[in-house]
Specification:
Length: 110
């Protein structure tokens, strides 16, 4: 299993944007499905977006049209572009490439 490290989180005002990165310690080209998840305080971890090896994507209804997942096999990195952020997007965001990272905090203020 590859080790992963998320980055790119921070504090942003509602309506703003962030791009999260998930860097893997090894090749991700053989990993069929890669995903971003999030966990808000007091809530269960939930799926945000998935991307397959052929580029098919799935999004949670709550982020459709605002978030975009992508992958760069050459850089062993998966991204999550988040636009039009809302306070309810506040959570720790995790990527999963067969293993979990430590997560990166995203906080959206009014």
């Amino acid at each position: 299993q590859v080790q992963v490290a998320e980055s790119g989180g921070g504090l942003v005002q509602a309506g703003g944007s962030l791009r999260l990165s998930c860097a893997a310690s090894g090749s991700i080209s053989s990993i069929n499905v890669q995903g971003w998840y999030r966990q808000a305080p007091g809530k269960q971890r939930e799926l945000v977006a998935l991307i397959s090896s052929v580029g098919r994507t799935i999004y949670a209804d709550s982020v459709k049209g605002r978030f975009t997942i992508s992958r760069d096999n050459a850089k062993n990195t998966v991204y999550l572009q988040m636009n039009s952020l809302k306070p309810e997007d506040t959570a720790v965001y995790y990527c999963n490439l067969g293993s979990w990272g430590q997560g990166t905090q995203v906080t959206v203020s009014l």
